[in-house]
Amino acid sequence: MGNRVFTSCKLLTDSVLMRPRGVDHPHADRAPLLPDPQAEPPSHAHTSDKTVQAGVQSSQVYPDLILSSTTAHGFSPKCRRASPAFDIAGFEDGLGGEAVPSGKEEGGANRETPCQVDCEPVSGGLPRALDEVTGQVEDRDCPPWVWQADPRPECTDCSEDNTPYSEETPLEKADPADVAEREKITGLGSWSGLSSCSPECGLLQEGGAREGRTKQSCAELVATNDHPSGDDNTADGLCRRSPLNHGLAALPALDLVAPRRESARRGGKRDSPVGSAPPRTNDRGLKGTRRQADGKVAGMLSPPGCSELPVTAEGSSQHATALRRRSKRKRLLHTEPAHSSGMPLVNGDSGHSHTEAEDHNEKGEGETHADDGNDQEVIVIQDTGFTVKMHAPGIEPFDLQVSPQEMVQEIHQVLMDREDTCHRTCFSLQLEGNVLDNFSELKSIEGLQEGSNLKVVEEPYTVREARIHVRHIRDLLKSLDPSDSYNGVDCNSLSFLSTFTEGDLGENGKRKRKGSELEQIDCTPPEHILPGSKERPLLILQPQTKDAKPLQCLKVLTMSGWNPPPGNRKMHGDLMYLYVVTAEDRHVSITASTRGFYTNQSTAYSFNPKPANPSFLSHSLVELLSQISPTFKKNFAALQKKRVQRHPFERIATPFQVYSWTAPAVEHAMDCVRAEDAYTSRLGYEEHIPGQTRDWNEELQTTRELPRKNLPDRLLRERAIFKVHSDFAAAATRGAMAVIDGNVMAINPGEETKMQMFIWNNIFFSLGFDVRDHYKDLGGDNAAYVAPTNDLNGVRAYNAVDVEGLYTLGTVVVDYRGYRVTAQSIIPGILEREQEQSVIYGSIDFGKTVVSHPKYLELLEKTARPLKIQKHNVLDDKSEEVELCSSVECKGIIGNDSRHYILDLLRTFPPDLNFLPVEGEELPEECTNMGFPKEHRHRLSCLRQELIEAFVEHRYIVFMKLAALQLMQQKANKQEKECPAVTENGGSSPADGNATESSKALSEDVDPKSKEVILNACKAVGSISSTSFDIRFNPDIFSPGVRFHDNSCDEVEKQKQLLKDAAAFLISCQIPSLIKDCVDHTVLPMDGATLAEAIHQRGINIRYLAKIVEYVSKSQARQQLDHIHKLGITELITRSAKHIFKTYLQGVELSGLSAAISHFLNCFLSSFPNPIAHLPTDELVSKKKRNKRKPRHLGNVDNTAWASTTPLELWKNISNETKSYFNFTIECESVDQAVERYGLQKISLLREICVKSGIQILLKEYNFDSRHRPTFTEEDILNIFPVVKHVNPKASDAFHFFQSGQSKVQQGFLKEGCELINEALNLFNNVYGAMHVEICACLRLLARLNYIMGDNNEALNNQQKAVLMSERALGVDHPNTIQEYMHLALYCFANGQLSTALKLLYRSRYLLILVYGEDHPEMALLDSNIGLVLHGVMEYDLSLRFLESALTVNGKYHGTKSLKVAMSHHLVARVYDSKAEFRSALQHEKDGYTIYKNQFGENHEKTKESSEYLKYLTQQAVALQRTMNEIYKNGSNASILPLKFTAPIMSSVLEQLNVINGILFIPLSQKELENLKAEVHRRQALHDTFRIAEQENSAEGTGTESDHGKSQTIVETSTAQASA
To answer: What predicted TM-score, i.e. pTM, was given to this entire model?
Structure first.
C-alpha cells in the first residue's frame, strides 16, 4: 500500500534494479511479450455476416470488421475474387456463401476473376483455406482486394444491450452463371450431404456423400493442404474427422495477431537481435505446431523456462496434436477512420465507452459521415504455401509445408517437436550449402521454392546450447510425469477425463465399437456411487491408473560435480560434464563438448576426462544414451508414443496456477534442471543481479499504451496485457512465498519484523500489518489486512474503465502461511524521494493534508461517470477547499517516466453504512429491523461495485416511472400529445453512461412543464443533476478526518441519504432477490466458492452471509432452500476456522509446520477427543540450544503455543468468531455436533478448509470418526500453497461477441448465436491463448448448440475440450467440472457410447457427493440421467434406485406438485412397465397424471399423453391379471396369451434425456413456422424502436429468419443451462 510502501525508503537500489536486461542474459526468455511497434498489423478474426444479423448495432465499435453478403441457401466450396465494395447484408441459414458484388469498379464493370485454388468459403465471400497453426481459415492465393464496408451510423454505446450489432440489408442471391464458372474452374462439381454446425466450416462429415471427386484427388487435397481440414472456430482447432482427414488434427488459434518477427527460441531460451520483437507465443509462451504434408503431425512447444515438448504423432494417431502452420497468413493494412472508434468495455462496463464516445463527438461535430466507407478501407495481401523436402541425419527425407511469411526459426521449432527429430536442438538449416538466417522470412530467401531441399546440419555446441539441450531432453523424459501438476509448478494442473473415457470419444470410440450397441457394457456402479451410500472415499478423486508411473528411461541425469571444466580441458572443447545412472544401474560420466556428447573415464571420486573406449561420440544426448542403455532406447521410444496420444489440452499450461488440495505420495526423483531453477532463477541469485530482472512496471504500462483504434490493435493490446499480467502474477506469487519463507532480505532490516518491506525481482512486497499505527483509527491490523483486497478491487475497477493516460500499479495479494503479502510494481523514481515530495494529488494522512492537481482531475473525471464517483471539495489543514474526483486516500504520483499513477484505491467505492455506525446518523427502517448498523472489526467496509451498478439501475427505473406517471397526468389534463422526453430517454440505462447526455439533450428542447417533471423525478431519486438522471457517490462521506465546507451541507446531506438508501437497497432488494433465485433454482451453488460467487454477483458482501442464512431459515420455502442453508453454515464455519488458522499459523516455525497443520485439522475435524501435537523431534535440536539465538518470527505468538490447542477450545473459538464477525450463533462444541445438527459432512468441510487455506493433504482414506486415534498425522500434510488474488484482464471484444451470441440463443436464433459464439471463441483464443475459463464457457455453449442442431459428433468434440479445460483451469472437483461431465455424458449417449456415458455420470455423481453430499437439487437431474441410461441398457433394478432417489430429491426441492416431480413419476413408471410390474407403474403414472391435470388442465397435450399411457398400463395390468388367474385356475394346461413387454428403445431414452436436460424438439407445421417468424419479427421490431429512439442514425434491424427447409423448430427451454 502506498502509505507504508514508500515511507522513508531512500534506497540506492533503484539505479541497480532498473537497468535494462542484456540480450545475452541467460534468462532472456523471461522477457515480456511486448509487441513490436514497428511490426506489421496482424490479421484479425474473420467476422461473418451473421454477426451483422445477430443483432449488433455498434458498428462504430468495430469499424474494421469485414462485412459482406452470403448466399441464402446451399453451400459451394468455390471462391472468386471479390468486388471492391460489399453491402452489409444478413443471411439466413446457409452453411457458407459466395461473394456477391454489390457495386461496380470505377471502370464500370464488375470485377470477377475466379481463384485458381480450391478454397473454403466462409461468410464474407473470401476464398479461404485452413491456417493450420491457428486452426483459422485464411485467405490465400489471390491478388489483393480492397474491401469497403458501407458507411455505418455512429454508435454511442452498446454495453447495456448485449447485442453489439443489429443492422440488416436485403440479401443478394448468388449469380448462377458465377457458380457455374466456379465449378468449371475448380472442377469440384456440386457437393452434397454436408452437415456442419458451423457456417464457416466446409468439412465433409461422416456419412456425407460427395460427388465430382475421387478418393485419390481428395487425398491430394489433404496432402497439398488445398482443402480445408479443420475448424477455424474450435478452441484447440482439432479438425473434424471426415473421409478427408482421418486422424489429422490442428492446435489452438494461439496467436492470430502476434507480432511479425519471432526471435530464435530453443529449449525455453532465445537469442534476440536488437530491435527484434519477442516470439509469437500464447499467454504462457506456448507455440503452435504444424502439419507436414505427408500426414505426420508435429506438436507443441512448452512454456518458457523449459524446453519444448515435442508431441509428434503419426497422421492416424488417436489424438493427433496441433498443427503449426502459418502458411496462409493475411496482412491487413488499415487506413484509420478520421474519428476514433469506441472501445467496448470489459464485462460490459460502459464507462470507457462513454469517454470514447465523447471524444468522438468532440472530434466529429463539424464533420459529415458521408465518407465513412472510405475510412474503413482494408487491404488484404495473400500468400501461397509451398512444400519443401527436409533432409535430417539418420531419418528418411520428409515433406514440410511452409509459408513465405514464416521465419526459418519456425522450421527449427517444428523439427524440435517432431517425434523423429525432437532430440535435436543445435542445428542449422542449409539450402544448397548456404546457411539460412534464423530470423529471415522464407520469402526473402533466394532460390527457396516448391520442392526445394533443406538440409539439417548439426552445428557445434556452446555452453549455452549444451545446457539448452540437456534441459530439452529432461523435458522429454518428464513429459508424462504428473508431479509438477501435484506440486503446482509451471502452470501445470491435473486432468482425469481420459482415465474415464479410455479414448472412447469421437471417431476413436466409433472405431472401437463392434457389433451391437449393447455389447458387454458393465453398468454396475461402485458401491459408494449408489443412492443412500454413506461411504465418502477420497482415493477415487485422483484415480491412479496402471500407467500413472511413467516409464523410467534413466535413474539419474544430473550435472557432474567435476563442473566446470578446468582451463586445459576447455581448450580441448569440453563444455560441461554430466553424471548418468542408467536403468541397468550403470554409472556413466559424460562430456558435453563442442562436437557433441561422449563418455569419459571419470568416476565419482577420480577425474579423468579422456574419452572412454568406446566413447560413442554423438551429436545428440539421446543417441548416446540409446547406445549406452538398451532400456533407455526402448522406453524412450515408448514414452514418445504415449506422449503424442495425449490430448493437447492435457499439456498446455494454464494462464494462472491451479493448486490441488490432495496429492498421492509421489516419489521425489533427482532432477538437475529443477535444482538449478530452484537455486538460481527461482530464489534469487540472478533475480538480484543488476540487468537480470524484468522491469514489471514498464511492461505493464507499455502494454496499456498500445493502440486500440481497431479490432486487431485491441486484440494485440489485450493479448499483451494478459500475457504480462499472468507473468507478473506468477512472479509476484513466487516472491511472496520467498519473503514469508525468509529467503529475501528486507530493505529495512533494522526495523521490527512486521514492518519490514522487500524488493525482489523488481516487485515491492509489504506485509498485511498496521505499521506505525497507520490504521489505528480504522481497526489496526484488521484494517491493514483488508486494505490490500479493497485496493485490488479499486485497481480492477480503474483498469476496467481503462482511461488513456491514467496508470495503476500491478497489484497481487497473496495469502501464505497465515500472512498477507501485497506485491506491487514499482513507480520509477519513487524510492529516490520522500513520499511527501512524490504525492501531488490526494492525501497521505487520511485527509489531514490534501493536495490536488489539474491533470489528475482531468483524468479522474473521465472515470467518474462509469465508477459513479462525484467530484467534490474537501477542506485541507488550512481550511482551504481542495477539489477531488476520488476518495481522499487515493494518491497521485508522477513517476520519473512522466506517467500519472494512482495508488491506494482502497476507498474507490462508498462505505457500507450497515457496518459503519456513525454517531447521530440513523439508518432506514429496513436496516434497523435487521439489527444494523453493526460494529465491524474494521472501518473499511465498502459496498461492492456490482451493488452500485444494481442500485443505480434500480433508481433509473424509479426515475422513468415517476417521469412517465407525471407526463401521463399532464397529457390527461391538457389532452396534448405525449411529451417526447421519456420516449427518447426510455431506451437508455444508467449503466450506459449515456443517460446524462440523452437527458441533457431532452431538457433543451422540451417545454417548461416537462422540465419540471424531469426536475421532480431527479430530485426524488437523488440525482446530482436537476436536468438529467445522474447518480454518483461521494466516497469521502463518513470518512474520519475528512471535512467539508459549511456551504456544501445540503449536498453532503443528499450524499448521506443516498448511502443510506444504498445500504437499505442491499437489505431489502438484493438479498431477497438472491433468495428468490435460489428458490427458483436459477442459482445452484454446490460449494462455498460458487455460493460466494452468486452472492458477489448481486453485490452482496460475504459479511452478510449470516443474514442470508437467517433469511433462508425464516423463509416459507425453507425446505426448498435446504442446500443453501447447509452451504451457508459450512461457509460460516470454514471461514471462521480460516480466520483462526491464519493467526494460528503465524506462531509456527517452518520445521513444525506439518505437525501444526495436522494438529489443527485433528482438532477441527477428528472425533478423537485428545489429539496431541508432535513438536519437532529431539534429534533435530542442537545440544547447544541454550546458546543459540532464538529465531525471529513475523508474528508475536510463542512458537509452541499452537501445540496446546484442543478440539473443545478450537470449536469454542470458531463459535466466538462466527458470532463476532458474522453475528451468527453456532451452537456446537465439536465437529460431531455440527455434523449432526446441520447435516454437514466432514469430507466437504475438509475440502473447504484446505481450498481456502492452501493446504495440500495426502490422497488416502481418512477415518474421521475414530475415537481411539487422530485422523491426521504430520506425514499426511504434503504442502501449503499460496492463495492468490489478482486482476483478471478481459478480452472485451470477445466478451461482447459472447454476450451477443448468448442473447441470440435466448431469442431462438441458434445458427446466428452459434456464429457469434464461434467468433467470440476466435477472439478469446487470440487474447488468452488456448486455455482459459471463458473459452471453456464458449465451448460449452457451442457444444450445446451443436447438439441441438443435430451435430452430435461436433458437440462431443467441443464438450470434451470444455471438460478438459474446466479440469485444468478450475480444478478436477470444481462444480463447473461436475456439470461439464454431465453434459459430456449426454453427448456420449447420443453418439452411442453408452458405457462411457455411464462412467462420466458416475464420476459426476461421485464429485457432487464429495463436494456437497447427496441431498442437492442437481443430484436429482444427475440421478435421472443415470437412471435413464441404465433403463436404456435394461438394468431395471439399478435404474429404479437412481430414479426413485431423483423423485425424492425433486419432491423435496421443487414441491410434490411440480412438473419435475411429474416427470420423475413418469420415468419410474416406464421402468416398472419394462419390468412388467404394472401396478407400481400405474400408481406412479397416476401421480404424474394428477400433477399434469392440476397444472395444465385435461386438454393439455402432456395430460393427454399421460392419460393414454395410463390406459395402456391398465390394459397391460388387466392382461397380466387374467393370465395369472388362468394359471391359478388351469395350472399347466392354461392357454397363456403372450404379454407385451416394452423393452426400452434408444431413441425414446434419448428423447427423455433431452427433456430432463432442458431440450425440447417441437414439430411445427409450415403455418406455425410462418406465425413464429412473424412474432419474432414483431418483437425484434419493437426492440429496435427503442434503439432508434436512442440512436439517431441507427438502421432498422429485424430478426433473422428461421430455417426455411426444416420441418422442426428447436426450442431451448433451459436458457440458463445453454448460456451459463
So the answer is: 0.74
